[in-house]
């Protein structure tokens, strides 16, 4: 039976492998996989994981790097009926241990025995693991018939309490989003889609899953820190047709093409951008030069990656009079977007309010954190049926009559640093954990190459702590994007008579 939009993603990929077994599914620096090979290797992973006791609602560490092993491990975990835990393998060991404890993870996939032993040493866990190298299972291993509401994956975002939040996405929401995005981007079995995002980003799933569900090839670039000009020969050689890039990276590309005009690779037909706010001036310069159409996307991990998109018509683009923020656009199919005031009433057209998202896009909540889930995923008073939920994004937006959603800023202390969502409270908690720090505040400050984190910390009397020592201390336990680029040490932080921080009295940070 042919799959539908509600068929879970792994079953859609298995169906595709049966339809076009010799088509290319994965191209990476270490080799290629046809859909038949992709499917067989994933079944081998599933066989080992099931033998180790992994199944529905279990999280499995995706302990592999970007490329063939990442693809095989991801699908193999799903074929076993379990859920991948997506993490940054370059994170400090203590961070990995924290994430595995929070997710209750006892299983992993790894390329070989040595890699598995390294994972066990780094995480301090006796992980039951499966190899992503085995070519085929030893017996008949059908993909698990996953239930629509079962756990699809867990991915951590920054938490305001100082602890990361494990977002749990269900198979029903993932299936709906993948089907919608495949249609929105016009994907077919003739597409070669760049696999650019880091494996710990859910955008990596947005690049790969709609591609595999429509029979295209996911093409992994070895180095995703290439400059845009350095990326172009790779796009040309691999006949890449669709790219999904961080907005700041695309902005750099747009400016570079304006300085040094040149044609882009002929196969490139669609550019998707997201993970940060873009500027209309870049969109204008890109479009005026005749480059491929751009779709600007907005979403959160809690909304299963992308929730809204924006692709202006020529007349709409021409109406921008200055360098404005690119609008968030309109909700995707199946997504509802509300602009609400503090009383959860719909804000009048043109008025500012907080953005709430609802519909099939929503994650199940925070894995093992019912209290936090109920705090952010609240009852939807506008739903057609009882039991509907909506997610409080914390983003302030506005919407003119008949116009797109427009981003105004954050309603809380969450910001984006190099494409990562960061809760300032988490960074403050980490800085405050140093024994010499008695008070701290962290802010995002504007810099030439994008927002940077700046920390002001009051230290104990007589402390010899230096800013560089504090940064090194943080780098031992946190990923780099969470570590303030600038640290200012003080005797005390300026506060009002009521005890609140006086931000205007903070000294200006010495930006790097």
Topology:
Blueprint lengths: L8 H11 L4 E5 L2 E4 H17 L7 E4 L5 H12 L3 E4 L6 H11 L3 E4 L2 H11 L4 E4 L19 E7 L7 E6 H14 L7 E4 L7 H11 L3 E4 L7 H10 L4 E5 H13 L10 E5 L5 H9 L5 E5 L9 E3 L3 H5 L11 E2 L3 E6 L12 E7 L5 E2 L3 H7 E3 L9 E11 L5 E6 L3 E4 L2 E4 H9 L4 E9 L6 E8 L7 H9 L10 E5 L22
Parallel strand pairs: 1-10, 3-4, 3-5, 4-7, 5-6, 9-10, 11-12, 12-13, 25-26
Antiparallel strand pairs: 1-2, 7-8, 8-18, 13-14, 14-15, 16-17, 17-20, 19-20, 20-21, 22-23, 24-25
Helix pairs in contact: 1-2, 2-3, 6-7, 9-10
In short:
The protein is of the alpha/beta class. Helices cover 29% and strands 26% of the residues.
Describe the structure.
- The chain has helices spanning 9-19, 35-51, 68-79, 93-103, 113-123, 171-184, 203-213, 228-237, 247-259, 280-288, 314-318, 370-376, 424-432, 467-475, and strands spanning 24-28, 31-34, 59-62, 83-86, 107-110, 128-131, 151-157, 165-170, 192-195, 217-220, 242-246, 270-274, 294-298, 308-310, 330-331, 335-340, 353-359, 365-366, 377-379, 389-399, 405-410, 414-417, 420-423, 437-445, 452-459, 486-490.
- It has 14 helices and 26 strands.
- Helix 1 crosses helix 2 (35-51) and helix 9 (247-259) packs across helix 10 (280-288).
- The protein is 29% helix and 26% strand.
- The strands form six sheets. It has a seven-stranded mixed sheet, with helices on both faces. A five-stranded mixed sheet has the order 11-12-13-14-15.
- By secondary structure, it is α/β, with parallel strands linked by helices.
- The mean pLDDT is 92.
């Amino acid at each position: 039976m042919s799959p539908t939009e509600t068929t879970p993603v792994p079953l859609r990929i298995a169906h595709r492998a049966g339809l076009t077994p010799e088509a290319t599914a994965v191209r990476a620096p270490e080799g290629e996989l046809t859909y038949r090979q992709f499917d067989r290797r994933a079944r081998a992973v599933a066989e080992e994981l099931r033998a180790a006791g992994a199944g529905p609602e279990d999280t499995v560490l995706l302990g592999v790097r970007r490329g063939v092993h990442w693809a095989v491990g991801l699908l193999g975990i799903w074929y076993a009926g379990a859920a991948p835990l997506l993490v940054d393998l370059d994170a400090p060991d203590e961070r990995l241990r924290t994430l595995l404890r929070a997710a209750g993870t006892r299983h992993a996939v790894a390329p070989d025995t040595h890699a598995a032993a390294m994972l066990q040493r780094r995480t301090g866990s006796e992980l039951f693991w499966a190899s992503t190298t085995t070519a085929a299972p030893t017996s008949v291993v059908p993909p698990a018939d996953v239930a629509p509401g079962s756990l699809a994956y867990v991915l951590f975002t920054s938490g305001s309490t100082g602890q990361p939040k494990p977002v749990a996405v269900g198979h029903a929401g993932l299936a709906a989003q993948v089907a919608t995005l495949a249609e929105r981007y016009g994907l077919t079995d003739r597409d070669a889609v760049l696999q650019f995002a880091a494996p710990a980003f859910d955008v990596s799933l947005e690049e790969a899953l709609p591609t595999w569900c429509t029979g295209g090839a996911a093409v992994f670039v070895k180095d995703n820190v290439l400059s845009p000009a350095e990326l172009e020969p790779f796009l040309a050689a691999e006949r890449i047709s669709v790219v999904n890039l961080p907005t700041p990276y695309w902005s750099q590309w747009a400016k570079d093409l304006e300085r040094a005009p040149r044609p882009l690779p002929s196969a490139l037909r669609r550019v998707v951008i997201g993970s940060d706010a873009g500027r209309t001036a870049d969109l204008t310069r890109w479009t005026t030069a005749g480059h491929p159409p751009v779709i600007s996307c907005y979403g959160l991990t809690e909304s299963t990656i992308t929730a809204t998109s924006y692709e202006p018509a020529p007349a709409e683009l021409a109406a921008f009079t200055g360098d404005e923020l690119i609008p968030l656009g309109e909700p995707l199919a199946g997504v509802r977007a509300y602009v609400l005031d503090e009383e959860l009433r719909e804000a009048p057209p043109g008025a500012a309010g907080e953005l709430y998202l609802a519909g099939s896009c929503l994650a199940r909540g925070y894995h093992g954190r019912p209290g936090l889930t109920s705090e952010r995923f609240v009852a939807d008073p506008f739903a057609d049926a009882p039991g509907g939920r909506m997610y409080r994004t914390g983003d302030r937006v506005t919407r003119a009559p008949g116009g797109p959603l427009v981003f105004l800023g954050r309603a809380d202390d969450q910001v984006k640093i190099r494409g990562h969502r960061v809760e300032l409270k988490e960074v403050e908690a980490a800085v405050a954990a140093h024994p010499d720090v008695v008070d701290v505040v962290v802010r995002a400050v504007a810099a030439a190459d994008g927002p940077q984190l700046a920390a002001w910390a009051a230290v104990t009397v007589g402390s010899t702590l230096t800013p560089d020592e504090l940064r090194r201390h943080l780098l031992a336990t946190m990923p780099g994007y969470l570590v303030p680029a600038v640290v200012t040490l003080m005797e005390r932080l300026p506060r009002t008579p009521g005890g609140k921080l006086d931000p205007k009295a903070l000294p200006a940070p010495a930006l790097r």
